[in-house]
Amino acid sequence: MTSRGHSVGAECDVLIAGGGMVGASLAVALAGLPLRVTLVEAIPAGAPGQPSFDARTTALSRSARHILGTLGIWPAVAADATPIRRIHVSERGRLGTTVIDGDEEGGEPLGYVLENRLLGAALWRALEASPNVTVRSPATVTGVAGGDDALTVSVQERGATATVRTRLLVVADGARSPLRASLGIGARVRPYGQAAIVGNVAVDTAFGHGEQSGIAYERFTPEGPLALLPAGPGRYVFVLTRRDAVADAVARMPDAAFLELLQEEFGHRLGRFGRVGARGSYPLELVEADRVTAPRVAVIGNAAHGLHPVAGQGYNLGLRDAAALAELVAEDAGADPGDPALLARYATWREPDQRKVVAFTDGLVRFFGRRRLGPLRGFGLLLFDTTPGAKRILARETMGLGGRRSRLVRGLPL
What are the structural domains, with CATH classification, of the chain? Predict the structure, then answer.
């Protein structure tokens, strides 16, 4: 993709560093406002290595679906999204289970499963149609100089360096964000010592798969969590967690051996796994930025909070960051989007949601990783499943509907 719009020495109102799904979502949200927006992304759309266009899938929460609907993105991807109508949580070797049912939470699906490449492509098509959004890609932010009324951002693009003055810089370049670090915003990084092995698996429909349609499974095993997400008739996306020391070897196992392992870990609730696709392995760690603002800077998405995928909350949490920031900027689009008071409101708004989701995902990993708590966990799951109030609270948090909801979540335009 080539750049368009601003030239060397140009000015904009908001510069977003990072055009992955969260950064691109924010740019789409701001596109309808009377603002000049620049999006800087290192890897062009559709290129190998662009995470917004790879073969992985994203579990979209109900709130994420609402946001994408309000932004006009959902109609372009709805036909390819698989609904999650129930979530089934269990532990291998224990009797207790918990089931969260969308029919008990308003009837709407709890969430959806969608390929990254489809969502990424829809977001970037929307950006191409937005005259007040300038996309610079492949390009990177190489420096930032401070100022009272604006920041001067150095952007390296195609071997040349340009400068763009912006009133607000949004850091959205991932969990190991080099820009966040260069701005003096520290982060706590805690490796889990685990990697996620991700791929697709087919289920033999002769074993009654149709009765299980629309159910997502989270199964905890002594070696780590295993998630199965519905991805169409007879097909699931799996996320199998293994220790770093063995993850690559497990990912490279012959198909027959890997299917046997997957079957042993999950059991026969769905029947027999028949075919498995290509597999990738990704290291897992918890990353928490020390703060999500600096003078004329906001941090969103994985740059603010990189999560374990155990509960599928990464993009959903980042999308709520983007929705909140866009709403605050839109409250007075003619005012200064980098105003300290606005950024303080953003940090205050997002802190409870970010804290709860980090604690929830990290707590799941730690709780189910302690083998001596096995009997207690089985009883706890059984007790939790029979406590409607507790399940409703968890369901609303999982759907991203707890706490303060943005206008975009509520279906209201900015």
Answer: 10-189+285-398 (3.50.50.60)
